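Table 4 source record.
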Amino acid sequence: MSDDCPSRLLTKLPSELRIKIYEYVLAFDNPIKPRQFVAGSSNTNILRTNKQVYHEAQAVLYEMNTISVSRNDFCSKTDRVLQTPIKSQHVRHLRFTSFGESIACNFLLDRCSVCEDHARGLLEALSIMPLLKNVNIDYSTQIANFLRFKDRAAGCPTGPTITCVGVGLYNVRGGRFDQADFTFSHRPLASIWPTLSVLSNSMPSEREEEDALSRLRTVDPDVPDKLWLLFWARQYGRSAEWSGERVAEAWVDELELASMSIEQRSTALHELTVALQVFLKAQTASQCRRYLRSLREFAFV
C-alpha cells in the first residue's frame, strides 16, 4: 500500500484530529438503524477504511448517535435476519419507536420474556449494556401495552419503579437504571403539551397562536389542535362541556403540582395523562378545530 493511499493518510494524522473527523462525518440528525447504513452511505463508508479506523470510528458513531430499535430486535423468537444488529457493549443512546410485541410473538400465545407484559427480558437486556446513558420508549401507538407493563411493575416488589414526571412522560428507576436516563413517553403528548401550556399563559394573538400550532403539527398533524381546544375550554370555564368530565376532573395546573409530594404528583400527572390519551383517541382534529371556532365565537360575543 503506497504512502499516499487515503487510509494511510488518515491514520498518519494525530488521533485527536482523526476523532474530530469521525465526529464530523458520523453525526446524524435523527436516530439511526444500523442495518440501513451498512452499505451505500457516504458517511459510514469511513468505517470500512481499515481495522484501526473501524474501531476508532465505531466508538464515535455510538457515542454521538441514538440507535432506533423495537422489541422485535430483542425478541428471542424472531429470526436474527429480521433484527437490527445491536452492539450491546457500545450502545449509549436507544430510542424504541414503539412498545408493541415482536412480529413473531404477536401471533403466539406463549410469548418470550421480552414481549410479555412484564417485559423482564427486555429490561435485563438493557440493564447489561455497560455504556448505556439513555433509553426512550415511545408507547403512543401501544398505550394498552404500556399500561399493562406499568401495572405489572407496580405489583412486583423487585421490579422497577415507574414515576410519571410530566404529561405523557414516565421515568424508570431501580437497579442499573439508576445510572441511565430511562423514560417511557407518549411522544406527541409529551412534546406538545408543555409548549401549549406556556402558550396558553402568554395570551397569544391569533397569528402567534396559528404560527405555534403550525410548528407543532410537524411533530404530529392532529394532536396540537386537539390539545389547544382543551386549553381554550379551560380558560373560558367550558372544560367539562368541551373536553368531557374525565379531563376536567383530572386537570391539574403547575401551582397545584408544586404543593404535592413526589408520589402525589406522579399520581395526578398519570391520571391526567390517561384522561388526555382517551380524549385524543376519541376526537378527530377536524372536530376539535370546529369546536374551537365555536368556542372563539362564544368568547368574543
